Amino acid sequence: MQKFRSVVLLLLFCFGLTNGEVFVTADGAAGMVSGSSFLLESDGVSCIIDAGMFMENEQIEKRNFRIAPKFLNANALVLTHAHTDHIGRVPLLAASGFNGKIYATAATKALALEFFSNGTGADLIKRKWFWYDDNANKKIAHWKDFCLKDEKPQTVLNPINFIDFQKSRKGRWEICKICILSQTAEIEKLFVELEYGQVVELAENFSFKLLDAGHIPGSASVLFNVEETRILFSGDLGSGFLKLQSKSLAAPKSDFVFIETTNGNVESVDENEFSAFRKDILNALNNSKIVWISALSFHRTQSLLYELKLMQDEGILNSNIPIYSLSPSANRITNLFEQEIVGQKRDWFAKEVYEKETLIPKNFKMQMPIFKGPMIIISSSGDMDMGMSKNLFLKLSPRKDVFMMVVNYVSPTSRAGILLANKEKFNIKKYNIFSGHPVLKEIFRWLENQDKKNTKLYLIHGELENMFSARQVFARAGFANVKILKIDERIQLR
Question: Has domain 273-430 been given CATH number 3.40.50.10890?
Answer without folding.
Answer: yes
